[in-house]
């Protein structure tokens, strides 16, 4: 079920009403949330519900066993059960065909042509997100940073909670489970904030991202026929398409959770206003960034074992972070680019003589955005050949007139993108988090803002556009 669908417009008010009618019975509320979450997910394909249920059962059991184990070996063995079960399912459904195809390509180099090793399988929606979410539960228990829950309904609800099930934010058990296990109270200020954040999320997705996507899809659907200017323009628009698409999803998820009494962590914090790539990753997809830092980078040793090991850990973390996004060499290269630049930044930080003078720090914004922009080519291109061709075309510096196509698409893109950037600039200058944006407004102002956004959404609405991160 899509947040921007007619089905969700019917689904959520029913859940919201029933949920608050049951506010005197926490257990019934949680059962309702669990069943609603399964219905929400089953709307795509009910067969994949079994994966979520199996994963939930394994980690509920593993968490309890880890906590109650008498020896370190027993604790480690149960952690391995959780790791192998969850990563095993993820590997089969998401990565098996990629590795099989890569192996076949390598074998062809040596003159061996193996039979087709790929499987005809569908990638379950959201598997990357709920896999990381459930793993954080068992790892935190193993590290003695969190105690397991004895309430199986609460735990299953934590894994399947519909606002963030499909594309995050990736919520830690330490934040979300205690909220599920305690009584929630309807808060008027949270309701107001949630409504506005949902509407802003829909605006970012439907009005901005989908409008930009019309031009981006045209350019990246025919890289071979366009010049440098057109590809750069298409990539520039894609940078904002993916930002507003994914940030929009996170806004809707966070706002929806607030309406039913839950507080999610912030997932985007104006990432393009960053003076370094390190800062960018503190603001972009924050729940994933912190997950990779806490459970991968630190587990590898972080920066505790010398500078060379630190560089290795950064590279491995970003390469695996790229692979998490998709089973393609494009994503691995994308992660590699970020890993290299993060390593360079760490090197420059450790050498004071090589740092930019304070007067030139403003260059950090443009340098960072340029690096992120070029790396998006690998993220958006259909395959490695298309990405390589796009980079070659850009480096030809053929800056003639860009392809325009439908003038309405271009004009609309400029208008809606300008609105989005100006709003983000306002938040940046005022140092306001979007999560708290509506807190200072009266009901009248909220109603006016909501009416304007709803009008714009209706003007641009299309049911044909999925959220980009659903493919990951």
TrEMBL record:
Keywords: Acyltransferase, Cell membrane, Membrane, Transferase, Transmembrane, Transmembrane helix
InterPro entries the UniProt entry points to: Ac/AlaTfrase_AlgI/DltB, AlgI, MB_O-acyltransferase, MBOAT_fam
Family label: Belongs to the membrane-bound acyltransferase family.
Membrane topology: Multi-pass membrane protein
Pfam families hit by this protein: MBOAT
Name by which UniProt lists this protein: MBOAT family O-acyltransferase
Spans traversing the lipid bilayer: 6-22, 50-67, 79-97, 117-139, 331-348, 360-379, 409-429, 441-461
Source organism (scientific name): Mesonia sediminis
Keyword Secreted recorded: no
Entry keyword Transmembrane: yes
Subcellular location: Cell membrane
């Amino acid at each position: 079920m899509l947040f921007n669908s007619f089905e969700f417009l019917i689904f959520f008010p029913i859940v919201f009403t029933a949920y608050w009618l049951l506010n005197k019975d926490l257990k019934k509320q949680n059962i309702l949330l669990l069943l609603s979450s399964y219905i929400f997910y089953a709307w795509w394909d009910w067969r994949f519900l079994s994966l979520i249920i199996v994963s939930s059962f394994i980690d509920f059991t593993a968490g309890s066993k880890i906590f109650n184990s008498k020896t370190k070996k027993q604790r480690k063995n149960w952690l391995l059960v959780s790791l192998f079960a969850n990563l095993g399912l993820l590997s089969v459904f998401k990565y098996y065909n990629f590795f099989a195809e890569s192996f076949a390509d390598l074998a062809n180099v040596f003159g061996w042509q193996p039979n087709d090793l790929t499987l005809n399988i569908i990638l379950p929606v959201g598997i990357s997100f709920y896999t990381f979410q459930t793993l954080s539960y068992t790892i935190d228990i193993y590290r003695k940073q969190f105690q397991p829950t004895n309430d199986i309904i609460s735990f299953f609800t934590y894994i399947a909670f519909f606002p963030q099930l499909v594309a995050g934010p990736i919520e830690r058990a330490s934040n979300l489970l205690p909220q599920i296990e305690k009584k929630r109270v309807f808060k008027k200020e949270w309701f107001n904030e949630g409504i506005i954040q949902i509407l802003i999320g829909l605006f970012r997705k439907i009005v901005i991202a989908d409008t930009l996507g019309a031009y981006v899809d045209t350019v990246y659907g025919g890289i071979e026929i366009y010049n440098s200017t057109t590809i750069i323009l298409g990539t520039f628009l894609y940078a904002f398409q993916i930002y507003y698409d994914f940030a929009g999803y996170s806004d809707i998820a966070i706002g929806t959770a607030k309406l039913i009494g839950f507080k999610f962590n912030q997932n985007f914090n104006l990432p393009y206003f960053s003076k370094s790539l390190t800062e960018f990753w503190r603001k972009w997809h924050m729940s994933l960034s912190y997950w990779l830092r806490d459970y991968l980078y630190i587990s590898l040793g972080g920066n505790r074992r010398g500078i060379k090991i630190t560089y290795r850990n950064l590279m491995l973390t970003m390469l695996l972070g790229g692979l998490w996004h998709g089973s393609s060499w494009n994503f691995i290269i994308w992660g590699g680019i970020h890993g290299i630049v993060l390593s360079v930044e760490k090197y420059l930080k450790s050498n004071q003589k090589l740092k930019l003078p304070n007067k030139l720090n403003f260059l950090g914004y443009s340098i960072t955005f340029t690096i992120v922009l070029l790396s998006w080519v690998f993220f958006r291109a259909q395959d490695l050949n298309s990405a390589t061709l796009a980079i070659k075309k850009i480096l030809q510096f053929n800056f003639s007139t860009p392809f325009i196509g439908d003038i309405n698409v271009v004009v609309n893109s400029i208008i809606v993108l300008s609105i989005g950037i100006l709003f983000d600039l306002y938040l940046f200058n005022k140092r306001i988090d979007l999560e708290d944006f509506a807190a200072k407004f009266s009901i009248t102002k909220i109603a006016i803002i909501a009416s304007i956004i709803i009008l714009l959404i209706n003007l641009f609405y299309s049911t044909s556009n999925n959220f980009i991160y659903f493919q990951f």
